[in-house]
Specification:
alpha/beta; 6-stranded mixed beta sheet; two-stranded antiparallel ribbon; globular
Length: about 240
C-alpha cells in the first residue's frame, strides 16, 4: 500500500498533487511544528504583473510560538483576506479557458472560511484533488493517528499503523531521511522527481512554481497530462550517487 505524508499547504502547486495521485493513503502531517515562512499559509498565482503571493494571515502573539503544531494555527479573521484572494484570482484568470468551469468551486473556497488554518487548507486541497480526477486516494490527518517518536522514527510509526508497505516522498527529504529505518520496518522508499512540462499560461514567461489553480483553470480536464502522466519517479536505491 502506497503512502505519502506531507504537511498541509495552501492551494499547493502541481507537485503536491502528483504525490496525492500516487498515494493510496495521503496523510496530512498536521501535528508537526508550524513553519512561519513555508507554504502552510501562502502560495503564488500568475497575474498580468507577474507571480503574486497570496498569504493567509494567521493570529500572532501567543498562538504562533515555538513548537505550535500546524493544526492549532488560527486564521486572523480580523483581516479581509478571503475576499482579496478571490478577487485576485478572479481578475487574473477571468480569461482562462476553464475559469467558468471551476469558478463556483474556487469562489466557494472563500465564501466561508473556518477559524483554523489546517481545516481550510486541507478542505481546499481535497476539493482540488477531486477536481483533478483523483478519486482513489484516502485522506487522513496525522493528528488522528497514534504515533510516537520524532523525524524518521515517527514517520515509520505512522506508516506501520496504516499498514503501508511503500513510502513516496519529495526529493528534498533525501537530506534527512534515514532510509535504513524504513527498510528495517519492511517499507520500501521512493523519491519523486519534480520534472514537469510547460503548459499554456495567460501571461508569459512561463512560471512553473505557482498554485495548481493556474494549471486547472488553464487546462481543465487535461491537467493530469501535465502532472502525473508525464512525471518520472525512480526508486530511492536507483537514485543514489
Amino acid at each position: 500500500m502506497n503512502c505519502v505524508i506531507l504537511q498541509p499547504s495552501y492551494i499547493p502547486w502541481r507537485g503536491y498533487f502528483d504525490l496525492i495521485q500516487r498515494a493510496d493513503v495521503f496523510v496530512f502531517y498536521d501535528d508537526v511544528q508550524y513553519d512561519k515562512h513555508g507554504w502552510r499559509n501562502r502560495n503564488r498565482v500568475k497575474t498580468a504583473g507577474g507571480t503574486k503571493w497570496l498569504t493567509i494571515p494567521v493570529r500572532s502573539g501567543g498562538n504562533v510560538v515555538e513548537g505550535t503544531p500546524i493544526r492549532a494555527i488560527e486564521i486572523d479573521s480580523t483581516q479581509n483576506w478571503a475576499r482579496k484572494h478571490w478577487e485576485t484570482i478572479r481578475q487574473s484568470y477571468a480569461k482562462a479557458p476553464y475559469f467558468g468551469r471551476y469558478r463556483s468551486m474556487v469562489e466557494e473556497f472563500y465564501a466561508a472560511t473556518p477559524p483554523l488554518l489546517a481545516d481550510f487548507t486541507i478542505e481546499t486541497t481535497v476539493a482540488l484533488a477531486r477536481a483533478l480526477g483523483i478519486e482513489h486516494t484516502r485522506f487522513v490527518r496525522s493528528s488522528d493517528l497514534p504515533a510516537t517518536g520524532a523525524k524518521t522514527d515517527r514517520l515509520v510509526d505512522l506508516l506501520t499503523h496504516l499498514g503501508a508497505t511503500h513510502y513516496i516522498s519529495g526529493p528534498s527529504a533525501r537530506d534527512y531521511m534515514e532510509d535504513a529505518k524504513l527498510a528495517a520496518a519492511g517499507i520500501t522508499l521512493e523519491y519523486i522527481v519534480y520534472e514537469y512540462p510547460e503548459y499554456p499560461q495567460l501571461y508569459p514567461p512561463f512560471a512553473p512554481q505557482v498554485s495548481v489553480i493556474d494549471l486547472l483553470l488553464m487546462t481543465g480536464p487535461d491537467a493530469p497530462r501535465f502532472v502525473w502522466d508525464r512525471a518520472a519517479v525512480a526508486p530511492a536505491e536507483d537514485r543514489r550517487p
